[in-house]
Amino acid sequence: MADKTVFQKILDKEMPAEFVYEDELCGAFRDVKPVAPTHVLIVPRRAIPSVGELVADDRLIVGHLFRVARIVAEKEGLTEGYRLVVNCGKHGQQVVPHLHLHLLGGKQMGWPPL
Length: 114
Ligand code: DGP
Known about the structure:
The protein has helices at residues 6-11, 59-75; strands spanning 19-22, 26-30, 38-44, 82-85, 101-105. By secondary structure, the protein is an alpha+beta fold. 2'-deoxyguanosine-5'-monophosphate (DGP) is lined by residues 6, 17, 29-33, 41, 87, 93-96.
């Protein structure tokens, strides 16, 4: 079995993190290096490496992550909106090879995000 990702260790409570939401399919915890007043990572318990490795059976969990993003955004009081980011691979600057949504909010975002 492949080594656990840092996110798998956090979800398994082998490493600390500040959780804001958890259920049987995923967990959401604050990013250790926040780039916005609210910066939460929403991570499936199943260690899917990236968007680039999604398969048809993953569609329910992907939909669930978006629903949890909405729940967390409401809990965080992001009434003016927020941004969801998914980095994929080298050009996407993905660092942790475990699928995750970044939920960013609490400030005005710019565009493009480059
Ligand atoms: P990405 O580039 O999409 O793979 O972003 C990974 C994010 O994970 C990055 O914003 C920093 C965050 N991160 C990395 N290691 C840890 C950790 O040990 N704890 C927490 N809470 N966040 C982490």
